[in-house]
Amino acid sequence: MKKFLTLLLFLSLYSAYSQDSVLIKSKVANAITELREFVAIPNDALNADDIDTNLYWLRKKFTERGFNSTILETEGLPLFFANLPIDDNKPTILFYMHLDGQSVDVTKWDQSDPYKIELKSKTEDGWKKESFSDLTDDINYDWRLFGRSTSDDKGPIVMFLNAIDALKKDKVDLPYNVKVILDSEEEKSSAPLPKAVRTYKDLLKADFLVINDGPVHVSGKPTIVYGCRGITTLSITTYGPIKPQHSGHYGNYAPNPGFQLAQLLATMKDVDGRVLVKGYYDGITLDEATLEILKSVPDNVEEINTNLAIANPEKVGSFYQEALQYPSLNIRGLGSAWIGEKARTIVPATATAELDLRLVPESDGTRLKNLVKDHIKNQGYHVMATEPTKEDRLKYDRIVTIKEGSVTDAFRTDLNNPFGNSIVKTMENKFGEKPVQIRIMGGTVPISPFINELKIPAFIVPMVNPDNNQHSPNENLKIGQIAYGIETFYAILSTSKE
Ligand SMILES: [Zn+2]
Predict the structure, then answer these.
(1) How close is the Cα of 58 to the center of ligand 1, in Å?
(2) CA–CA distances in Å: residue 483 to residues 128, 136, 165
(3) Most buried residue among 97, 416, 488, 492 by CB atoms closer than 10 A?
(4) In this model, does residue 2 exceed pLDDT 70?
(5) What predicted TM-score, i.e. pTM, was given to this entire model?
(6) How many whole angstroms separate alpha carbon 120 and alpha carbon 164?
(7) Cα gap 236→268, rounded to integer Å
(8) DSSP secondary structure of 242-286
């Protein structure tokens, strides 16, 4: 009897597994066909007609799957919205993806048309073109699809559609209401989005937001991201003589703006890269549980340092993930007079440092900019928002002009959010290990204002391979990631929050 039960269990497990994989494989095949169609419609957000053709395609595909869809007019290009029939007793997931793509420079691609997907396999010295007819029997998950937006971000949209098909085929009663918003200006920084949230508040109402954009962790493992840093900028200029002067005649006499700027910048950080501006890191505390999650990210320190060719990192955090929990103060550009072959024997008139400040939720951008300005004043500088006049120059010993950039806020969802916990658990059950949990990504996504405006917990669940050449020539999507994406959408959509 026991033997029989074991056999039965084995058979049922086996058939569940094989059915599952047959179903997924068939969905992957269909997803490839659909992605080829979708990518064939150019999607440069600089061209409004392209976007319209994409919206038309999406409307057809979502309608086929039983969605109601609407085109939402904005101050910029229209957004695409779709939802399955709403049941008021269920919580609502809102998915965000984008249909626009970066412009292409055909001359830099290894294929004649970046909007015509090419199938390639990896060889020792590069990529070999394969025929799509070889995909029919058995799909090689290591092969890749090359084309604009295969990864960023049309691939995930097609994975989503095919996961819906699989859920329908399995007659899964979804525990959620499902809404989808597709951006058409993500690559142009999503300017119309925050206002659109206010206009279409009722339509977008949801309990949580899932963003499917960007790559999984470099380890290739399933990943969930809870936030992104924000950004603001400062431009700092110091002044010497009103025009560049002969360094023989005026060296040792006319104050040098390059040295002034260097001395000023040197007061802002210690030798280990920690910001010395008072109050810069205020409000940031990392408890043991948070540190543990930060440490669990499988970053390969040696590999990172080798890739960057650095002997030692700065010491804002004691390891990479910890460093990202703090706002940064970065010199992104530095200039005075001429360098290289054009260098001249002069005392320059000005020196400029361009700074960027990556923000975390504890560090309001305006507050940090004010801290830096106060710091500069405390070094004895007369701070101005405009270029000094000759009178200003004659009156003040040391002048700095500071130009401020706008602030894009950070966002970060609590690591203990129940919807987040449920996604983590679902992915753990599906893939046999906990996903990589990134508390905050170093970079800034243009949709932060949109997320902050929605005021609901948000999670980034990336679907694509980390080496996808996003935004660059030869953008690609690993076919295995299509299976991963379909399975992940399927798992999230079919598992209710406990
Ligand atoms: Zn993207």
Answers:
(1) 17
(2) 22, 15, 13
(3) 488
(4) no
(5) 0.90
(6) 27
(7) 13
(8) SS-EEHHHHTTTSPPHHHHHHHHHHTTB-TTS-B-STTTTTT---
Q: Which residues contact 343 (CB under 8 A, 6 or more apart)?
A: 337
Q: How many A from CA of 344 to the centre of ligand 1?
A: 44
171 compared with 4, residue with greater pLDDT: 171
Q: How far apart (Å, rounded) are the C-alpha atoms in residues 172 and 170? A: 5
- The Cα 230–Cα 368 span in angstroms is 12
The predicted-structure confidence for 148-166, as pLDDT tens digits, reads as follows 999 999 999 999 999 999 9
Ligand 1 centroid vs 470 CA: distance in angstroms? 8
Question: How many angstroms separate the first and last alpha carbons of the chain?
Answer: 35
Q: Quote the ligand 1 centre to 186 CA distance (angstroms).
A: 7
Q: What's the gap in Å between 228 CA and the centre of ligand 1? A: 14
Distance from the CA of 427 to the center of ligand 1, in angstroms?
A: 22
Residues whose CB is less than 8 angstroms from the CB of residue 170 and which lie 6 or more positions away in sequence, other chains included: 23
Q: What spacing in Å lies between the alpha carbon of 211 and ligand 1's midpoint?
A: 10
Segments of 160-273 assigned E as strands:
177-183, 208-211, 223-225, 227-228, 230-239, 245-246
Condensed to tens digits (0 to 9), the pLDDT of residues 295-306 reads 999 999 999 999
With 0-12 / 13-18 / 19 or more C-beta atoms within 10 angstroms meaning exposed / middle / buried, residue 169 is exposed
Name the amino acid, one letter, at 232: T
Distance (Å) from CA 102 to ligand 1 centroid: 9
Tens of pLDDT, residues 261-298: 999 999 999 999 999 999 999 999 999 999 999 999 99
pLDDT over 80 (residue 13): no
Q: 140: CA distance to ligand 1 center in Å?
A: 25
**CA 152 / ligand 1 centre spacing (Å):** 5
Strand order in the sheet with 223-225: 68-72, 79-83, 177-183, 92-98, 208-211, 458-460, 223-225, 436-438
Tell me, in angstroms, the distance from the centre of ligand 1 to residue 323's CA. Answer: 24
The tens digit of pLDDT for each residue in 300-347 reads 999 999 999 999 999 999 999 999 999 999 999 999 999 999 999 999
> 453 CA distance to ligand 1 centroid (A)?
20
Q: How far is the CA of 377 from the centre of ligand 1 (A)?
A: 40
Contact 457, 417 (CB under 8 A): yes
Measured CA to CA, the distance from residue 196 to residue 169 in angstroms comes to 35
CA 364 to centroid of ligand 1, rounded, Å: 25
Distance in Å, CA 134 to ligand 1 centroid: 30
Distance 147 CA to ligand 1 centre (A): 14
**Token reading at 146:** 């090359």
Q: State how far the alpha carbon of 359 is from the alpha carbons of 210, 262, 402, in Å.
A: 22, 24, 19
- Please give the structure tokens belonging to residue 396: 């003040």
